[in-house]
Amino acid sequence: MRRGTDAGALALAASWVLGVALAAAPAGAAAADPPRTHEVVIQSLLYVPETLTVRPGDVVVWINKDPFPHTVTAAGVFDSRSIAAGKSWRFTARKLGTHPYLCTLHTTMKGILRVE
Amino acid sequence: MRNFIITVAASSLVLLSGHAAAQAPSDAQIAAIVVTANQVDIDAGKLAEAKGSNAEVKAFGKQMVTDHSGVNKQAVALVTKLKVTPEDNATSKSLKAGGADNIRNLEKLSGAAFDKAYVDHEVAYHQAVLDAVDKTLIPSAQNAELKAMLVAVRPAFVAHLEHAKMLQAALAKKS
């Protein structure tokens, strides 16, 4: 019986702390959203979607569905190196900004990753 | 001689474009043309990888081997699934002969002359392949999956052509 009371008190205290924490969070509390995973499909020498907007901490997975390798390269920001046919590459977005990228093997292929 | 070889290889495909209106190739013939066209560029790419003197030319040759091998693997898997047996025809035979002539010509060359001849041929060849894909192969393909595969790989030929043209311009600046 006594244990039950303690547990109840603990839960009450915890919810109070949580409530305070939530109330203290800035209005744009979306920053507390868990990181999301986004997919970009590489097919017929296109990045689909061509432009992707993510939040810092989100994961982007590029999936190569072409029968030959591609790269996902934004000079100085990220570089997948060669992604073989049927393979994928994961990248955690951190640096804020608009990052145009291309395939260094097929430079007609261009995409944009926005981190905001 | 070099210009003659380029003309010969490209004319195999020009012949195909002109020939199309009279008699469209069957799916079995298209399969043979696709596999041969890729193989011809794989063979030239292997030679460039080994004999090229410019690092970018060697890298391009290596990429042609990788990309066209990938396309051929996909094409063979598809025609096997569709139970289509590639059927040799005038165009595939002409492509094969043109490819062999190109290799024979390249084998006689070395250094910058090899690089230029290889890249010039790649520009003409990819342009001719693109024309054939657009004017004959895609319009003639009967099977929807075969047609879809041709449409899907077409951008690779465009990218290769752009890449080869860039190399051609860079080599011209150096000489």
Structure description:
The complex is a heterodimer of chains A (116) and B (175). Chain A has one helix at residues 2-24, and strands at 37-43, 46-48, 51-54, 59-64, 73-74, 78-79, 88-92, 97-102, 110-115. With 116 residues, chain A is an alpha/beta fold. In chain A, strand 8 and strand 9 form a beta hairpin. Chain A starts with a helix and ends with a strand. The relative contact order of chain A is 0.18. Chain B has one domain (2-174): Ferritin, CATH 1.20.1260. Chain B is built from 6 helices and no strands. Chain B has helices at 2-20, 27-51, 55-81, 90-107, 111-140, 144-174. The A-B interface holds A 43-46, 66-69, 85, 105-109 and B 63, 66-67, 69-71, 73-74, 151-156, 158-160, 162-163, 166.
Task: Pick out its properties.
heterodimer, A: 116 residues, alpha/beta, Immunoglobulin-like, 2 domains, 4-stranded mixed beta sheet, 3-stranded mixed beta sheet, 9 strands, 20% helix, globular, B: 175 residues, mainly alpha, Ferritin
Strand proportion of chain A: 35-45%
**CATH top-level class of the largest domain in chain A:** Mainly Beta
CATH superfamily of the largest domain in chain A: Cupredoxins -  blue copper proteins
Please bin the fraction of helical residues of chain B: over 70%
Oligomeric state, counting identical vs distinct chains: heterodimer
Mean pLDDT value of chain A: 83
As for the CATH topology of chain B, it is Ferritin
How large is the count of helical segments of chain A? 1
Which bin fits the share of residues in helices of chain A? 10-25%
Along the chain, the helix and strand elements of chain A come as HEEEEEEEEE
Number of domains of chain A: 2
Q: Count of DSSP helices of chain B?
A: 6
Number of β-strand runs of chain A: 9
Measure the end-to-end span of chain A.
51 Å
* Radius of gyration of chain B from CA coordinates: 16 Å
Head-to-tail CA distance between termini of chain B: 20 Å
Quick one: which chains have the greatest interface?
Answer: A-B, 14 and 20 residues
Mass-distribution shape of chain A: globular
- Show unreliable segments of chain B: none
